[in-house]
Amino acid sequence: MERYYAHETAIIDEGARIGEGSKIWHFCHVMGSAEMGKDCILGQNVFVGNKVKLGSNVKVQNNVSLYEGVICEDDVFCGPSMVFTNVINPRSAVERKTEFKPTLVRKGASIGANATIVCGTTLGEYCFIGAGAVITKDVKPFALMVGVPAVQKGWVSRSGAILGADLVCPETGEKYKLAGDNLELVSE
């Protein structure tokens, strides 16, 4: 019995490591040195390149390509048609496969539909990237980022709720505090 589900149209290259309970839907391609944790979901038409690492419970919505150099920790959400890059200055006539820049998406981060993440960046834990935003630099944990290029417009809780001035999650009651320019969880 299979430990994970793969639709009959999915292509999973030999050597790919896929965690128990994961689901791989229509027209996906998982390359041979890719790694996926438990309970991941790849929506329709997702590409997972060589050396890509996905933690557990990662949700990748339709039409997303995760290229070599992308690492997503546990509980990451990648919205429909969002984009990861892996070369800063691509040219068709210049091969730059030795110049791939890594992108790290920390635990619990959410990336909205049609957002673009320029390679060489780190998205902090539980940050929230708004739909259509273009990320060109590192993002702080819990930061709410919107626009082109993206700018921080506030803070979000671990559950994704926008925090008010009191820095208390309206959904869970979790309390946060500012420590310099960063937000920290105080209590659950």
TrEMBL record:
Which keywords describe this protein according to UniProt?
Transferase
Membrane-crossing segments per the record: none
Q: Name one GO molecular function term.
A: transferase activity
Q: Does the keyword Cytoplasm apply?
A: no
Show the InterPro entries listed in the entry: Hexapep, Trans_hexapeptide_repeat, Trimer_LpxA-like_sf
Which Gene3D superfamilies does the entry mention? Hexapeptide repeat proteins (2.160.10.10)
Does this entry carry the keyword Membrane? no
Q: Which family does it belong to?
A: Belongs to the transferase hexapeptide repeat family.
Q: What is this protein called?
A: Hexapeptide transferase
